[in-house]
Amino acid sequence: MPENLYDQAITGPFHALCGGGEDNDGTMEDCLTLAELAGGGYAVRDTKLGDESPELRFTKAELIAAAHRLAALD
Questions:
Q1: What is the CA radius of gyration of the chain?
Q2: Separation of alpha carbons 64 and 55, rounded Å
Q3: Which one, 16, 35, 38, 60, has the greatest CB density within 10 A?
């Protein structure tokens, strides 16, 4: 995997990863989207900011570690 994830191209569209709190109409809102990077890794954006959201990029190991950490907070 290249050292700089921000040099890697996004290989596909962003897909919703999780749901947020309930909107006023009772539906769940997406909170972030995720897309794979060429050569490994993922780009993550906040759906509230739409397509103009700045991306944060993570290796697979970093995303897994973050998910475990968040799960431990529940």
A1: 14
A2: 18
A3: 35
- pTM (2 d.p.): 0.74
The whole domain housing 39 covers 5-73
SS3 (DSSP) at 34: strand
Which SS3 state, helix, strand or coil, does residue 53 take? coil
Given strand 56-58, what is the order of strands in its sheet? 15-16, 32-36, 42-46, 56-58
44: pLDDT confidence band, cut at 50, 70 and 90? very high
Count the domains in the chain: 1
Distance of alpha carbon 63 from alpha carbon 34, whole angstroms: 11
2 — pLDDT class (breaks 50, 70, 90): low
